TrEMBL record, chains A, B:
<feature type="domain" description="HTH tetR-type">
    <location>
        <begin position="19"/>
        <end position="79"/>
    </location>
</feature>
<dbReference type="InterPro" id="IPR050109">
    <property type="entry name" value="HTH-type_TetR-like_transc_reg"/>
</dbReference>
<feature type="region of interest" description="Disordered">
    <location>
        <begin position="1"/>
        <end position="20"/>
    </location>
</feature>
<dbReference type="InterPro" id="IPR009057">
    <property type="entry name" value="Homeodomain-like_sf"/>
</dbReference>
<keyword id="KW-0238">DNA-binding</keyword>
<protein>
    <submittedName>
        <fullName>AcrR family transcriptional regulator</fullName>
    </submittedName>
</protein>
<dbReference type="GO" id="GO:0000976">
    <property type="term" value="F:transcription cis-regulatory region binding"/>
</dbReference>
<feature type="DNA-binding region" description="H-T-H motif">
    <location>
        <begin position="42"/>
        <end position="61"/>
    </location>
</feature>
<keyword id="KW-0805">Transcription regulation</keyword>
<dbReference type="Pfam" id="PF00440">
    <property type="entry name" value="TetR_N"/>
</dbReference>
<dbReference type="InterPro" id="IPR001647">
    <property type="entry name" value="HTH_TetR"/>
</dbReference>
<keyword id="KW-0804">Transcription</keyword>
<dbReference type="GO" id="GO:0003700">
    <property type="term" value="F:DNA-binding transcription factor activity"/>
</dbReference>
DNA sequence: CCAATTAGTGCAACTGATGTACTTTTGAAG
DNA sequence: CTTCAAAAGTACATCAGTTGCACTAATTGG
């Protein structure tokens, strides 16, 4: 839909300044959030420190939560690629499991800033919910990719079901002592069911 | 935790009045919501019409959404009963499917007030989300019941996975032309996977 | 009857978010 | 270069949900 952020695009002074303002706001917000916690930093303060008005802030970010997820990038393309470009013989749920384990559960081993970021999101209900809601917006696209790859009709509800469950899987892990195992088990359930369902037509 | 609402409990004048106030607030709110829509009725107005202060209102209901779900009753016991008292030979996912189809997708055929209520919830994002969040709070209890019934260790992540997915299933239906079919398919996926998973130990 | 709770009140304030009207900047057309 | 309209930003007021505080009044248990 919107192709902002393409580094190759020669944008004029105007768009550059706009992007700079946006970045300044997001950076300020994230810094303050990491310092003092999401709930203890108000919109007015962020705008103040970033030296813009609250009106301007909300012109760049629709809601407070969005300040944290500025660099969404395209998670969706990665997700779809995981399905479409999976190794020969690997089932779709298996590919999604790999992707989930690699991409969503990789918090621990990155550098400190990433860890802090994940901690922030993880420990703030509002941010967790927002992130999950964003994640679920890919359901339809994923369902369509699954339908194409599996040869099932696009309208087949099982495709939507698999897509939805796969996207919910990381959430199942919450509260388990071994999150990776929990996610793996959730995908086991889906994989076995999916195999049988596909082979029967 | 709290055992309010037990009709057999002889509560004193105080608790009776409290319950009456609560009921009056909830009734007023629901009436206004049905008349004019959830988003077009403010907290202050509800309190005003119910003749209480907003402070009092919030002492009975933690957030605006809660005004609509006053009569939660115990969905949880029904859910657990569906699993524990299922017919001989019926799998756990099958029992959950029956329960989902009967209890969650039954909006259309009740009397008009129920229909209107479901429409209200269904057409208001804030209420949908709140309802789903409430629904998911039963995950742990359901997972435990599943573990007991299936003989798997309580810590087995697959139990949590099945519980979570089963509770999410109704959401898969959203946006499909035939919601009941979509839900059924979602449970098919779970049932087949579950059978295999249990039989392997 | 006294003392401790506790429902309820009134009011002010805070926080996220929106609407309106006004100024500046900028890109581009003439 | 001038002019003009769109875009970006600002100031200010306001709304809605929610909370804190100080206080009253009813109730209940000892």
């Amino acid at each position: 839909m919107d192709d902002t952020g393409n580094s190759a695009a020669p944008m004029g002074r105007r768009e550059r300044k706009k992007a700079a303002t946006r970045q300044a706001i997001a950076d300020t917000a994230l810094r303050l959030f990491l310092e003092r916690g999401y709930d203890d930093v108000g919109i007015r303060e962020i705008a103040d420190v970033a030296d813009v008005s609250t009106t301007t802030l909300f012109k760049h970010f629709p809601v407070k939560e969005a300040l944290v997820f500025d660099e969404d990038a395209d998670q969706e393309s990665g997700l779809l690629a995981a399905v479409r470009e999976r190794p020969e013989g690997q089932s779709i749920p298996a590919a999604l499991r790999e992707h989930a384990l690699r991409y969503r559960m990789a918090a621990a081993d990155g550098d400190a800033r990433f860890t802090a970021f994940f901690d922030l999101v993880d420990s703030t209900p509002a941010l967790r919910d927002y992130a999950q809601a964003m994640w679920l917006r890919h359901t339809d696209a994923l369902a369509q990719a699954i339908a194409e790859e599996s040869g099932l009709p696009e309208s087949e509800p099982a495709c939507t079901a698999l897509a939805h469950f796969a996207l919910e899987a990381p959430r199942v892990a919450r509260g388990h002592d071994d999150p990776r195992l929990a996610v793996a088990r959730a995908f086991d359930l889906l994989e076995i069911g999916w195999r049988a369902l596909v082979s029967r037509g």
